[in-house]
Structures are given as C-alpha cells and as structure tokens.
Amino acid sequence: TGPSGAVGMAADKDHRRNLSEQQLSAINTALGRLDNDEYGYCLKCGEELTPRRLDHNPAVTTCIDCPRGA
Predict the structure, then answer these.
(1) How confident is the model at residue 30 (pLDDT cuts 50, 70, 90)?
(2) Could you tell me if 42 and 33 are in contact, meaning their C-beta atoms sit under 8 angstroms apart?
(3) DSSP for 20-50?
(4) Backbone angles phi and psi of 13, in degrees to 5
(5) 1 or 35: whose pLDDT is higher?
(6) What pLDDT, on a 0 to 100 scale, did the predictor assign at position 67?
(7) Which DSSP letter does residue 60 get?
(8) Nearest of 58, 50, 39, 55 to residue 66 by alpha carbon
C-alpha cells in the first residue's frame, strides 16, 4: 500500500470512529430517555413509536411521519 493508500485507510478509520461515537451518543441519549420514562415516543409530535421502528433502531427519536433530526 502506497502513501495514498495509507491516507485513504486513515480517513476510513476516522470515519468509522466518528460513526461509532455518533452511535454511542445516540444509545446513551436513548438510555437517558428510558430512565426518564420518555423512551418510545417521537420527540417532534409525541406519538408512540412503533415496536417495529424501535426494533430496527432502538435509538430512533422520531416517528416515521416526522422528519429526522429532533
């Protein structure tokens, strides 16, 4: 692997680290919501999240009808 390959590998490693940190943050936020009896509800509209949605992503914060980024 040449210098450009090493740079690409380092960038990929940084990307994976950032993604892991984001996922860990989302999980910790979900755990906090669970502790406060707020878990399982959309942060935008307050509707209950479907079990299927939570099974797919336990850290999800919005229902299927609301835009992400709450």
Answers:
(1) very high
(2) no
(3) HHHHHHHHHHHHHHHHTT-TTB-TTT-PBPP
(4) -65, -40
(5) 35
(6) 81
(7) -
(8) 50
Of the chain, the percentage scoring pLDDT greater than 70 comes to 89
C-alpha to C-alpha distance for 15 and 68, rounded to whole angstroms: 21
The Cα–Cα gap between 19 and 43 comes to: 22
* Confidence check: pLDDT of 38 > 50: yes
Q: Could you tell me the two tokens for 12?
A: 């990929």
Given a cut of 60, is residue 70 above it in pLDDT? no
Which position has the token pair 């690409």? 8
Fill in the DSSP letter of residue 15.
Answer: H
